[in-house]
Specification:
Layout: H1 2-12, E1 15-24, H2 33-39, H3 47-54, E2 59-62, E3 68-90, E4 93-118, E5 121-133
């Protein structure tokens, strides 16, 4: 019985493979190009609707025409690390291998919205957005 366990034990450990991906996803935010297109309509979308969708702006200013200008900016860094290792043994022969990698990227989204008072309600009159990844 003891010799049977000694013979079967290496077979049970014959192939052990592990993969460990580690990633930090971009924080969830409604500030995406698609959401901007769906939400913002010139002379229709109100300031309250903008706050409801995107939250408070990063910066509030006023331009030379007296229009209120809101600026949103979201930055995210995405890091991915992966590690693979494997080990195999057949009674007296054995082998192992390891590999690892690391990848990092940055994403930025900027949205600038101009509001004007239309019939007593601050409404979007113009907006522009830019996004970049590197």
């Amino acid at each position: 019985m003891k010799s049977l366990i000694v013979l079967l034990f290496p077979l049970l450990l014959a192939a052990c493979v592990g993969t460990t991906p580690v990633g930090e996803p971009m924080s969830k935010s409604n500030l995406t190009s698609g959401q901007v297109s769906l939400t913002l309509k010139k002379n229709i979308t109100t300031q309250a609707e903008v706050v409801e969708t995107f939250g408070a702006p990063n910066l509030v200013t006023q331009n030379a025409d007296g229009e209120e200008v809101w600026t949103y900016q979201k930055n995210a860094t995405v890091s991915n690390a992966a590690s693979n290792s494997s080990y195999a043994t057949i009674i007296l022969l054995g082998g192992s291998s390891k590999s690892s990698g690391f990848e990092q990227s940055s994403r930025t989204m900027t949205l600038i919205i101009k509001f004007k008072d239309i019939k007593g309600v601050k409404t979007v009159v113009d907006f522009s957005s830019r996004s970049s990844s590197f």
